[in-house]
Amino acid sequence: MKLLFEESVRGHHCDVLPVCDVPLYALPEKRALPLRLPELSENEISRHYTALAQQTHGVNDGFYPLGSCTMKYNPKINEEAAAQRGFTALHPLQPEDSLQGALQVLHLAGRYLCEITGMAAMTFQPAAGAHGEFTGLLLIKAYHRARQDGKRTKIIVPDAAHGTNPASAAMAGFTVVNIPSGADGCVDIAALQAAVGEDTAGLMLTNPNTVGLFDKNILTITRIVHEAGGLCYYDGANLNAVMGIVRPGDMGFDVVHLNLHKSFSTPHGGGGPGSGPVGCKAALTPFLPGGQVVETDGRYAWKGSVQSLGRVKMFYGNFLVVVKALAYLLTLGREGIPEAAANAVLNANYMKQQLADVYPMAFSATCMHEFVMSLALLKKDTGVTALDIAKAMLDYGMHPPTMYFPLIVHEALMVEPTETESKAELDRVIAVYREIYAKALVDPAALRTMPLHTPVRRPDEVGAARQPVLRYAGGGL
Ligand SMILES: Cc1ncc(COP(=O)(O)O)c(C=O)c1O
Description:
By secondary structure, the protein is of the alpha/beta class. It has a domain at 81-332: Type I PLP-dependent aspartate aminotransferase-like (Major domain) (Aspartate Aminotransferase, domain 2, 3-Layer(aba) Sandwich). The chain has 17 helices and twelve strands. It has helices spanning 4-7, 42-54, 76-82, 85-88, 100-117, 129-146, 164-171, 189-195, 218-227, 248-251, 260-263, 319-355, 376-382, 386-394, 423-442, 444-447, 461-466; strands at residues 121-123, 154-158, 175-179, 200-205, 231-236, 255-258, 278-280, 292-296, 299-303, 371-374, 402-403, 412-415. A seven-stranded mixed beta sheet has the order 1-7-6-5-4-2-3, sandwiched between helices. Helix 5 (100-117) packs parallel to helix 12. The model has no long low-confidence stretch (mean pLDDT 94). The structure holds pyridoxal-5'-phosphate. Pyridoxal-5'-phosphate binds at residues 68-69, 128-130, 162, 164, 206, 210, 235, 237-238, 259, 274, 276.
C-alpha cells in the first residue's frame, strides 16, 4: 500500500485546520524549514486511512483475546470526553488558575485509583506499564537510599513474570534474582524463602499471575519479603481480573503500576498513547516524580516534594488517557468496576471449560481473567504448532491469542476473552477453536498453509525481528 507521501498530487488540498487562536508570528527567513507535506483532498485521505484500517484487525472488527493485553472494547463515549476542546486545547504551562478542570481530573482519577489499589498517592507521569515499572523501582531505590540501606541491590522476579519486569529492574540498576514457579504455576515459597536476604530490595509480582492464576499464598509471599526488609511491587497489568474486588495494598504490596490502556478504557496496540500510573503507600510518597495535585477549599494546585526523584516524563503524563479512565470510572462506579472484573473471570472460565476436552490446559485450577493452553502434544503428534493454530484463526475473522507466552509453558496459547464479549460470541469462537483443532488432526498440512484470506499471510517473523526496516527508503514528493 502506498504512503500518503506517495499518493500526493500537487494542488490537491483540504482546508480543515481550526482557526488559529494565537497571534501569528512570521519566522525569519533563515529559520523557515522547507516543509514537504503531502497534498491530498479530504476524500483521498479518508480512503487512505480506511484502506489502512482494513489491512489489520482491531477490537472494533471482532474477537481479540490477546492474553495479558486486555484488548477489551472501550466505550466510544470516553473518547468523546477526552476529545473536548477544553482538554485538548490546554497548554501545560498555563497558569494553575486556568487549569482547574484538568487538575481536578488528575486529582479525582488519582483518588479513585488509590481506592481501587489500596495506595496512598499516585503519579500519572509514566507513559506505559514498563515505564511505570521503572518508575516504581526508582521509588523503591529512593526509599532504601533515604534509609541509608545501600546494600539492597537485588530484585526478586518469578520466572512466570512478564518480560518487562526483569528488564525494568535491570534498567533501574538492580540485579535480578529469578525464582521458579511451583508445579501449580504459583510462586515456589521455599525458593522465595531461600532467595530473600539482607540484599533484597524488593519483589516484583503480578497477581493474578501471567498464567492466569490468583496466588493464594500472596499474604505469605509479601510477609516473607517484608520480614527480609524488602518492598513488594505489584505489576497491575492484570488488574482487570480483580479491580474493585481485592486490593494490591491489602495483599501487602507497597508500590503498584496500572495499565490504563488495558483496564481503564484506552484502546491499545499499535503504539499508544498509553498511561502507566504508579501508586504507592505513604512511606514512599515523598519520592514520587512530578509532584501531586492537592485540593484546598475546592481549588487545585501542584505540590512538589524536595525528596521527589524528579520527572520521568514531561508535565502531567499522557493526560487525555487519564480523562478516558476517569470517564470510565465514573460511568461504571463502585458497583460496575467489580462487576466488569467478575465478568472477565466468568468469560475466561466459561471458554476454558468449553474447550478443556479438546485443548490441553496448562493448569487445571479455576482461572482468573485468562487461561493458558499447551499444544505441545498436538505438535508431537501432528507437527502442528501453536503458531499454526493461531494463524488459522485469522481466516475466521478473529485475532489469535497470545503465542509462546508465558515462557514456562511449551507451545503456549494464552486466551483472555475479556468481559466485553457476549455469550453468543464466545460460543461462536469456541466452535471455531474446536473446528481448527479437528482440522489439525485430520489435515495438518492444510493447516500449515493458513491464513489464506488475509492481506499478509505468513511474514518472515524472524527476519522482521532481526533485520527490521525502520527507515523509509522510498522517494515520494
Ligand atoms: C503482565 C504485564 N506486565 C507489564 C506489561 C507492560 O506494559 P506496557 O506494554 O504498557 O509497557 C504488560 C504488557 O502487556 C503485561 O502484560
